User: Which sequence fits this backbone?
């Protein structure tokens, strides 16, 4: 098994970094390329239509608004579709009373949404980038999440859904690239959902609107227009709180969400082709509350677990999964659980490829868990 | 007077276009010509401190009339009669033209994909940073948002440092780590990407100046869009409560991204929104008005009178950032109307009409500026990208030898 790791080796100690820089950047860039793995809707899902992520989201909001006359959509520039055009057409169809721009005020947007939802309407707030959600952090952590609890069930803001694009895009630098899901996953009372493509976006967002708890829905913006799925056009949902086994395999369990799931699938392909290792790939889909059972079941059969996310390692959600799994599946584990994550640094600008937990790093982790066992 | 009639129609249309009274007046016109020795020495001193002083000379001064200022909680305001020397005016022209040319060149670099990511250009607003900078001191502090290229230049960063930063090169003013939104220099606290976040920080900087008994003010800039962030009101209350030497400046360019001011703000008189803080609205296209107002305010503040809110009425020509064509939420005519006034051209014509310099002298400046920009572009594109270790440097004050089990410099390479 030691042989497996020999194709990758440390070199920096022996070379000057400067000489290697172009090579490293080149390799990292190539291995952070998006390679989208399409999803197929279930056969019984009825009529389908091809859509990209943006179209799937606006289609889903359209269905929800049509069905629920109390629903309003608001956020910065959403009346024109928002910067990513996800709400395009809604203003024309439902009018300016239901689809409107807000001033530049994230705390205001979220808190206003809490009030609207508490007052009995469905509130869909768009935050332009997940990186901009933090001015509203207090309202999320202290108000939205605890409204039901602290009022002994008399009030809640379960009709609030906050959508925000997250994640790396190649050149977003410090404030247009972050993955903040772990901050919210630390707060009981919230739900945190991340789709991996247009199909899941539809199913999960419809469920989010129907859910009686405040839902934070983070969209992998790198995928917005990058790829399409066939989308069932009817009322088709994916339940919250359930992970999906995207690919079955007997050797290693790989867990990810959002865009990173595609990277894991790439690594799984490499492992199959180069190592004859079969990976079971699981899309967590709902980060909070998360589906422990599906992961436990998989780890009990493979004995190995790798979790990967773009967010930095320390305090990332992978840590929570790893800890829970080792408590529940300790005797099934054949190798230490691996986390392949962003480095513990701010999200870099020009050096994004170096930061990313790309397919080579995921592949390396697969080799390691195989070699260690 | 011919200048006057030439600009009046444009100014009137603009007035109608913008809901708030845009106190745009025609090109400042020549009033009288005189020499005042004290004024001259003052101008000389300040120009030699100028970080990009191009060696302009000429003690000869002229006087212009600026548009009137709108005041809030001020009984009297800055003078509308302003005096400027030839040397100073030429330097102002040089600065504004440099910024304009640099920004337009950046747009090209962006389209060539040499600049990636976000790039917010200052074109159209140059009178703001150049006018303000000409009336504050080098050791005063400035903090602004992401539309920071012009401010980076006036605060002393070279065009090379700015363009190299934009291109993500190691020779950039922040080592290529930040890009468009994140430029910093001595007494220039950036360059901030989160809208509104810089405002309370500015109040804090002002507090430090006061606490340390330094005779320094902090210029805290924000946009009309940012004016609606809650932090602004929190910061203003603190500044007023504690009498901080903080000059809040709202650069009102009529749009926050694609949202026009009247769709985002209930009170369009931004200069009145500091509640207990006295405010002043200035024609932000007129560099002399900005310069004069700032001079007056800075003096007022240095006397220990506490914070002031200045609104600059200005306009951005380009889209919000390079990914926005800037034409979907406003008409081409609207942009054209302001382009006809144009703050840079206004300076040029004022200089020529007042016989401070000849057209051919200004052409020399144009040529010099072009050369500076061209050299900076070549320098930037020839510069290396940042070292890989820059990914983890400056995260903490000291560099830990290992971070979560990884060693600095450690990288994987496929053999
Ligand atoms: C907290 C936060 N929310 C949203 C954004 C996205 N955004 C960047 S600039 C901008 C508009 C700001 O307008 P204004 O303050 O008028 O400045 P201008 O762009 O006109 O200079 C918006 C909404 C952001 N960067 N940070
Ligand atoms: Mg603005």
Assistant:
């Amino acid at each position: 098994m030691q042989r497996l790791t020999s194709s990758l080796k440390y070199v920096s100690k022996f070379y000057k970094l400067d000489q290697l820089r172009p090579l490293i950047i080149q390799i990292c860039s190539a291995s952070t390329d998006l390679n989208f793995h399409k999803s197929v809707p279930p056969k019984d899902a009825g009529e389908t239509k091809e859509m990209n992520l943006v179209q799937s989201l606006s289609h889903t909001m359209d269905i929800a608004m049509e069905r629920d006359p109390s629903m309003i959509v608001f956020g910065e520039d959403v009346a024109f579709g928002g910067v990513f055009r996800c709400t395009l057409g809604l203003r024309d169809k439902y009018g300016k009373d239901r689809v409107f721009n807000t001033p530049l005020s994230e705390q205001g947007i979220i808190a206003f949404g809490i009030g609207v939802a508490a007052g009995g309407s469905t509130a869909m707030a768009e935050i332009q980038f997940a990186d901009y959600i933090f001015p509203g952090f207090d309202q999320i952590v202290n108000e939205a999440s605890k409204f039901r609890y602290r009022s002994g069930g008399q009030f809640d803001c379960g009709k609030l859904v906050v959508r925000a694009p997250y994640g790396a895009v190649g050149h977003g630098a410090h404030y247009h690239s972050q993955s903040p899901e772990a901050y919210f996953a630390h707060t009981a009372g919230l739900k945190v959902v991340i789709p991996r493509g247009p199909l899941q976006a539809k199913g999960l967002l419809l469920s989010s609107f129907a859910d009686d708890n405040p839902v934070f829905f983070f969209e992998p913006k790198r995928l917005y227009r990058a790829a399409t799925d066939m989308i069932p056009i009817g009322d088709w949902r994916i339940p919250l709180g359930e992970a999906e086994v995207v690919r079955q395999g007997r050797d290693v369990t790989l867990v990810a969400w959002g865009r990173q799931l595609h990277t894991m699938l790439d690594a799984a392909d490499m492992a199959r082709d180069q190592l004859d290792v079969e990976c079971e790939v699981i899309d967590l889909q709902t980060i909070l509350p998360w589906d422990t059972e599906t992961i436990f079941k998989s780890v009990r059969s493979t004995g190995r677990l790798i979790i990967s996310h773009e967010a930095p390692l320390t305090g990332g959600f992978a840590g929570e999964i790893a800890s829970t799994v080792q408590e529940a599946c300790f005797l099934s584990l054949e190798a230490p659980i691996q986390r392949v994550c962003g480095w513990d640094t701010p999200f870099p600008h020009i050096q994004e490829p170096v930061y990313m937990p790309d397919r080579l790093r995921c592949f390396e982790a697969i080799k390691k868990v195989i070699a260690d066992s | 007077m011919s200048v006057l009639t030439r600009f009046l129609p444009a100014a009137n249309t603009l007035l109608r276009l913008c809901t708030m009274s845009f106190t745009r007046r025609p090109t400042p016109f020549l009033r009288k010509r005189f020499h005042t020795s004290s004024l001259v020495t003052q101008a000389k001193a300040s120009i030699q401190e100028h970080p990009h002083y191009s060696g302009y000379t000429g003690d000869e001064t002229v006087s212009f009339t600026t548009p009137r200022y709108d005041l809030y909680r001020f009984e009297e305001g800055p003078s509308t009669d302003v005096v400027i020397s030839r040397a100073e005016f030429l330097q102002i022209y040089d600065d504004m033209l440099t910024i304009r040319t640099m920004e337009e060149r950046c747009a090209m670099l962006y389209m060539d994909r040499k600049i990636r990511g976000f790039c917010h250009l200052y074109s159209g607003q140059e009178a703001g940073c150049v006018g303000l900078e000409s009336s504050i001191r080098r050791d005063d502090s400035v903090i602004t948002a992401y539309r920071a290229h012009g401010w980076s230049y006036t605060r002393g960063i070279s065009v090379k440092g700015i363009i190299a930063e934009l291109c993500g090169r190691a020779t950039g003013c922040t080592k290529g780590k930040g890009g468009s939104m994140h430029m910093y220099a001595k007494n220039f606290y950036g360059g901030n990407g989160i809208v509104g976040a810089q405002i309370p920080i500015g109040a804090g900087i002002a507090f430090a100046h006061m606490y340390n008994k330094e005779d320094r003010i902090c210029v805290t800039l924000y946009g009309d869009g940012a004016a609606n962030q809650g932090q602004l009101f929190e910061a203003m209350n603190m500044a007023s409560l504690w009498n901080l030497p903080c000059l809040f400046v709202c650069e009102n360019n009529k749009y926050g991204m694609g949202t026009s001011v009247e769709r985002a703000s209930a009170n369009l008189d931004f200069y009145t929104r500091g509640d207990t803080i006295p405010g002043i609205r200035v024609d932000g296209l007129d560099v002399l008005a900005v310069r004069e107002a700032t001079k007056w305010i800075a003096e007022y503040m240095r006397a220990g009178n506490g914070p002031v809110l200045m609104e600059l009425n200005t306009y951005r020509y380009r889209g919000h950032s390079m990914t926005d064509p800037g034409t979907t939420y406003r008409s081409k005519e609207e942009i054209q109307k302001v382009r006809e006034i144009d703050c840079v051209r206004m300076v040029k014509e004022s200089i020529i009409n007042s016989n401070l310099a000849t057209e051919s002298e200004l052409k020399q400046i144009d040529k010099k500026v072009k050369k500076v920009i061209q050299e900076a572009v070549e320098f930037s594109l020839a510069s290396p990208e940042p070292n890989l270790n820059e990914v983890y440097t400056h995260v903490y004050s000291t560099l830990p030898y290992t971070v979560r089990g990884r060693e600095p410099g450690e990288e994987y390479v496929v053999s």
Observations:
- Chain B touches chain A through 50 residues (CB under 8 Å).
- Residues 25 and 101 of chain B are 25 Å apart (CA to CA).
- Residues 4-384 of chain B form a domain with the Rossmann fold fold (CATH 3.40.50.970).
